Amino acid sequence: MKGKKKYVYYFGDGKADGRGDMKNLLGGKGAGLAEMSQLGIPVPSGFTITTEACLEYYRQNKKYPKGMWEESLAALKKVERSIGPKFGDPKNPLLVAVRSGARASMPGMMDTVLNLGLNDQTVKGLCDRSHNERFAYDAYRRFVAMFGNVVLGVKREIFERRLEEEKIVNGIQLDTDLSVDSLKALVSSFKEIVLKETKHPFPEDPLKQLRLGIDAVFNSWFGKRAKTYRRLNNIPETWGTGVSIVAMVFGNLGDTSGTGVAFTRDPSTGEKRFYGEFLFNAQGEDVVAGIRTPLRIDVLKKKLPTAYKDLMSIYKKLEKHYKDMLDIEFTIQDGKLFMLQSRVGKRTTAAALRIAVEMVKERLITQKTAISRIDPHQLDQLLHPMIDPNALLNILAQGLPASPGAAIGKVVFTAEEAEHMAERNEKVILVRTETSPEDIGGMHASEGIVTARGGMTSHAAVVARGMGKCCVAGCGEISIDEAAQTFTARDVTVKAGDFISLNGSTGEVILGTVPLIQPKMSPAFKTLMGWADKIRKLKVRTNADNKRDAAVARRFGAEGIGLCRTEHMFFEEDRILAVREMILADSLEARKKALAKLLPIQKADFIKILKEMEDLPVTIRLLDPPLHEFLPQTEKDLKVLSREMGVPISVVKSKVNSLHEFNPMLGHRGCRLGISYPEIYEMQVEAIIEAACTLSQKKIKVTPEIMIPLVATREELGKLRTLCIETAQTVMTRRKKKVSYTVGTMIELPRAALVADQIAAEADFFSFGTNDLTQTVFGLSRDDAGKFLPDYVEKKILPQDPFVAIDQEGVGLLMEIGVQKGRSVKPTLKIGICGEHGGEPNSVAFCHKLGLNYVSCSPYRVPIARLAAAQAAISSGNEAGHRATV
Amino acid sequence: MKGKKKYVYYFGDGKADGRGDMKNLLGGKGAGLAEMSQLGIPVPSGFTITTEACLEYYRQNKKYPKGMWEESLAALKKVERSIGPKFGDPKNPLLVAVRSGARASMPGMMDTVLNLGLNDQTVKGLCDRSHNERFAYDAYRRFVAMFGNVVLGVKREIFERRLEEEKIVNGIQLDTDLSVDSLKALVSSFKEIVLKETKHPFPEDPLKQLRLGIDAVFNSWFGKRAKTYRRLNNIPETWGTGVSIVAMVFGNLGDTSGTGVAFTRDPSTGEKRFYGEFLFNAQGEDVVAGIRTPLRIDVLKKKLPTAYKDLMSIYKKLEKHYKDMLDIEFTIQDGKLFMLQSRVGKRTTAAALRIAVEMVKERLITQKTAISRIDPHQLDQLLHPMIDPNALLNILAQGLPASPGAAIGKVVFTAEEAEHMAERNEKVILVRTETSPEDIGGMHASEGIVTARGGMTSHAAVVARGMGKCCVAGCGEISIDEAAQTFTARDVTVKAGDFISLNGSTGEVILGTVPLIQPKMSPAFKTLMGWADKIRKLKVRTNADNKRDAAVARRFGAEGIGLCRTEHMFFEEDRILAVREMILADSLEARKKALAKLLPIQKADFIKILKEMEDLPVTIRLLDPPLHEFLPQTEKDLKVLSREMGVPISVVKSKVNSLHEFNPMLGHRGCRLGISYPEIYEMQVEAIIEAACTLSQKKIKVTPEIMIPLVATREELGKLRTLCIETAQTVMTRRKKKVSYTVGTMIELPRAALVADQIAAEADFFSFGTNDLTQTVFGLSRDDAGKFLPDYVEKKILPQDPFVAIDQEGVGLLMEIGVQKGRSVKPTLKIGICGEHGGEPNSVAFCHKLGLNYVSCSPYRVPIARLAAAQAAISSGNEAGHRATV
Q1: Cα gap A9→A27, rounded to integer Å
Q2: pTM score, two decimals?
Q3: What is the DSSP code (8-state) at residue B796?
Q4: Maximum separation of any 2 CA atoms in chain B, in Å
Q5: Could you give the CA distance from residue B364 to residue A123 in angstroms, rounded to a whole number?
Q6: Which of A67-76, A291-300, B257-266, B509-518 has the highest mean pLDDT?
Q7: A394 — phi, psi (to 5°)?
Q8: What pLDDT sits at residue B863?
Q9: Which of chain A's residues have a Cβ under 8 Å away from the Cβ of B779?
Q10: Residue B289: its pLDDT value, please?
Q11: Suppose B417 and one of A566, B176, B325, B412 were both cysteines; which one would form an S-S bond, judging by CB atoms 3.0 to 4.6 Å apart?
Q12: Beta pairing partners, A409
């Protein structure tokens, strides 16, 4: 029928109107059934109403599109012809299951309605056909309740309460002990319930039942649960759902019947073994409901060998056909096997890796396919300890999952206490309202960190991710009383020294200790990452401020450091005093004196990091944060400082006051400090080049890249570039050594991107600082956004947190302008990204698209970025010259 | 000589190589002399070395370009032929003046050297020729001192000390009483001084003198004074300076000689009358030095009638030729008139307006030329009271000229005190470390405001400019002791109640009272502004938050309100309590209750403003600042609030704490408040539409434009637009009235500009908020920038303060993207600007270029914007359809 849309696709008898690749039109379930039918695999006959019909239904204000119902009736006739029984036939009734099925599996959608087509007449036909009155009325009462609940919207509890009553009255405990009379009584009670609750009698007409069933599936697409699920999983509304109407087969007709679910490989480990469960004399829902304990699939081998043999050959056929591990559902009716569903099975990351790698070895799939099948986000699981999923948890509070993994330790409330206890080999969890750079030592010493304030990109979160340390941030439920050395959450008060545990992957704070599972990198992981490395074009570097982080990252495959924040070095105990002396200095001479104390310390730090990264580039960012961040804030600490420095408290306070800023994020920081106090940057550059000279003398090849932060104008960079070059030249002359280094800049202000052509003239490289760029493009402080950003995502004003994934329309457009303008002047300009986004897969793909040279991310995200970069290369068809063999 | 550059241009004898329009090549002075010579006006012969020669001199590392010296010698010969005496001729020496002259008049450049060519031989020739030994030696001693100082760099004081000595020794007081012997002694003493100070003998060779003189002019181009002047006046280095060598004529040869300066019209009032001063028997420098009191030019009429008649006819010829008021210098030598210089004369703004308008009436110039001749910045002078320029001032401190005008009053340190004293009709000046919105009442009550902190766009500055009130901001020199009720500056302590005066146009804080000159708008001003209005394409609106400001602006020609900030209404005493109640509300109901109190107040405010702006559009911005701005900050004030509200202090404090933000500029403000608390925006829209309905019933035509601030995404605007429309509909239905209104948005975040196409879909208009846009594009908080921004401008990292004039490369590019993307979706989208830049002439020109529909600025800047808009239209050749008649 040319020009007319086909809304209904039949399947059965080894044939099908649809195909497996028509998921968009038929939904996952419908496409799977069609595909299986075409493969000659036994499936109950049926038909699928398309997702287009669903969308049209909404467009026409909940009316079926023209022809859909007629096509459905015609398909129903075909099913009757294929199976024998007829829909609504009181003698020999055909019963059907009505099932929803969107493009992707969607738990939020309508449940299946089984046994549709039963009424007071047809139930008798079912009795006759099955020679089993109990079976028929059991099916009937289940149908009325299920239809009443799912389709007609009557609360499930009302039916269940009536069922309980019936059992109490009859003094029985199990549903299976109900008598036929009881079942009949239940049917009529249930119908009364429906009448009372809906003001309409239960529909006896099977076609009306069918119509209502289809409506219910369509309507569930905009149900509350479905909407929530779509939002959480970024599924567009415009997909719509399909409806599959499938002839019922019965696993509950006796001991030669039954129902099962299986995975074609082990979904936990990925091991190549058929893995399933089976229940005799049961319907599908019984397996899922978990009332009876299912048996291992092997039992079939002895009890129903033919069905078992069929099942084995079918699953192999299916796996070969789909080239993936499958999750299948089947029913055996009187010894005959029917497949009800087959779909790609969910699996752990470890299993996913093993399956992908082994399938390449089995020549089922290519390396590229293997790479594309792993969700990079999931790799996190592999790299951090995890809480045993079987453990019972006493959850105290829920915060943001700021840095993944798990941790157990005693509660401490100060960074000092954390360090002291760590020195005594005690494991501690640092609990703070928020952390500041002063807490770095204590964070290092802790197993994990909890903060009451701050978002996913708060200081605590960023630093913890850098350290690969578990962190729960912004946990507003806990209320800290530092004086009393306690915190309270959900009415539980926890004292310093009490044990708590953290799940940084979910944001849970747990009372007491929990069993942990330690991570390991499997051979499959290494193999797959090796393939990914050959394909990707983007280099992957790490953000690391010390030797330890650098070493971790290098083990994870980092190809250099993209961001080494020198200020983090300033906070350690042996140097913070000199830093403060430098800040409090009231003359250039005094400042230079203090800087002279810092010089050897910074030099030693750089030697360690550069050595760890031998042969790889290391981007070192000069001092960035405003100076007041290095001064204490409380009256008490100011007094200590005044005493330590031998400076009157009034002077200290007046300095703190004069450094106060209304908006420190937009204040006197970054290269603005370098312009105001060139001697600070001179000291840092001297330390870098000194370190490089020292290593170079030992034949250790190092490539420092000096990076100037917060540049807005060409003139800033020009002046500071000159300062760097002159300082480096002085050091090299003194040391009689030549080392190679470059001078580049962060692009982290809108203006820098807008005038990138001017700035490029002074830069050897660009590195997008997308954290600050996101803050300025949105006019949104990440420290303050916690108050409304979650609400913004909830209300769909933002598709997602722009501090997690790059906002491609806004921030991304500015990056594109920056790349284009920068390379218009220097076509081979090296450009990277060192914001938190560098480890987020979608953002990595975007960076690949922009043609960046590298991404840089926290050490534990390096593998994620490597994989995401490979996937981006594959999906864009723009892979590394060195192609992977298939 | 094809291919060879000509470096030297001769003039004299009614001829000239150059012309008046060759200012770029010859400098203003050289071009003027050439032009006069060509017009047949008597000028001493001479020649000009071009600015290109100067630039070439620098390019060649301070060597003369090839041929320049030879050309100069040839020109010198021509001068000799024209005049008679010969350069260096001991019998009859030609003397010359060497003068600098850049494209624009540059006070920082080298002074003139007169009498060049004198030495021990030629001085005798001069004696013979003038029959006046005293004259000759007086000229000689002046020359040695002047040359020694200006060319050879010997300190002027050394010569002056020696001169004083000579006078003391001889017991005389006036230079003119010096004997010939004394003059001769001085010459040789001066030469000794030169030898001692420079280690070289005074150059006797006239050609060497000439060469050194030329060098000195060239070198002064990069002298410290010239560089400073260029920076302050935005003059590029690449202009270079010309050098004019002019035959000396002597006004000091006796009573038929003399020298004078004149303006062709009165430079103070613009009145059409020849206005000049004259000294008999004097050289040019004597008039300027002010030692003798010059006579009115009329004296010439009787004493030297021929010269007077010549002068009259020459000035008329010149004015007719140049079609502008001129500043001329002349010398009469033995009754014969020589013109030494003619250039466009400096004048007051009042004079500039009158001259321009009268010259149009005289058909000398067109209306467009008249418009183009007025510097819009200068109009400020006309609209504010000014300190009498002749008053002696006791300057206490120097701050930023934040809001122009002058003010006198008694010092107060709090807004309350300001209000109390104002009620008693006392004039006060409010002195604060910084102001906050709470101080608005006190600012209103004050004559002027001084702040110790904050820049040109600090709260105090912005609000004061809005009010047209004088303000000196960021006056770091004053140190306030609020407890003692005093402030100290430059060691003077000023108590509360003492009188001080402010000059908001210069930033000076002055001890005591000063005489003021009141402003008035002249007929010429009105005429010229009328012409400007006919030519400009940009509409000019005002930023006004109350009826008073609106009325002022309307009188100044505002064509509507471009920004009415509703939050300023929140601060007045009768409403701040309800605002705080709203903020402290712990439930939606409580918040709505508080809002219900605010509704009638806001409605009444809107009625007043809308009525004042009858027939004109009024853009009302919904609540923008973060809520914590409305809460008090000190412990004491919090206690008061707690008492007033009947809320425990702990609750008040906890609310203040929970509202605290690290970067309020990037925090929970603007439309984010509207999303979080839609009831606030609902109340505001209700008040606007209620006001419009009420006025509409009285047949008063009003056009409210509702503006949503801080939009970053289409979704924000979409949601709030719906809220506005639904609320408006409800009100109109209730009132049974239809009023026209629109809903638009600020474009003040980079993201809004980047996705302007999306945002335009939801907007009836755009208004660029360039204050915030500049802050986010630069990542620069205007409240904090004061610490380093002046240094940035000083060091040329920024050409100017981007909060004063739009940064066209960065912010401007983003605006261009915003306009282009916005109009790509809605070609006729109305777009304006409401940042502080809307009243800055260069920024107005940029807005014209971008094709905006209007600019909006503070009331007192409206005339400036009107004029700047007309000038932009003229210079771009894109004028309003309704053309001015010429």
Answers
A1: 12
A2: 0.80
A3: T
A4: 105
A5: 109
A6: A67-76
A7: -100, 90
A8: 95
A9: 665-666, 710, 712, 748-751, 772, 776
A10: 55
A11: B412
A12: A500
